[in-house]
Amino acid sequence: MKVLVVGANGQIGKHLVSFIQDSDKLKAKAMIRKQEQASYFENLGAETAVVDLEGDIDTIAKACEDVDAMVFTAGSGPHTGKDKTIMVDLDGAVKTVEAAKKAGVKRYVMISSFDTSREAIQAAPSSFAPYVAAKHYADEWLKRTDLDYTIIHPGLLTNDEGTGQVEAASKVERGEIPREDVASVIVASLENDSTIRKEFQIVTGTTPVKDAVKSI
């Protein structure tokens, strides 16, 4: 299975491409914004596609033409304004969903926020609410398609070394999780069809990643 990683140059994305390239079942195609980012992924043996997520759906769909699955790991980041939150975390996500449909890519994994419920939007601080709202509507858009989607809701992301152990369920207590472990969960989800058309939260726990994903 060839997987297009959207947001490959991000912190989760880099871990993910590396893990995919180490997998016997998967191959990565890294979607990046700048050509100068390509060498990192080419050194891993991964293909690259230089595509701006703020571009049009047709351009994104062209990058999808030779892949079997798409993973959305992109994000506007904590230091951008509400405009980028809308254009990347909402519109960018929706465009990748539409591009997948257009290119006939059925399998889609979305990295969302920990809680994107209507209640979470209302409860979020004013500075964070636009991000939660963007993720809420991107998730809802995906769920209304016929794609074989999986939506992963990670806890507070850290740059700690991965433990390889998580807690995964439709609802878990808030907690932290290393980005490296999120990438491991994505790989396990791609390799396990039982996660199709499901969404779940993940935090650091005591269950090996593959076992936790199988239990979903």
TrEMBL record:
Q: Which InterPro entries match?
A: NAD(P)-bd_dom, NAD(P)-bd_dom_sf
Query: What Pfam families does this protein map onto?
Result: NAD_binding_10
- List residues of the NAD(P)-binding domain: 7-192
Name of this protein: SDR family oxidoreductase
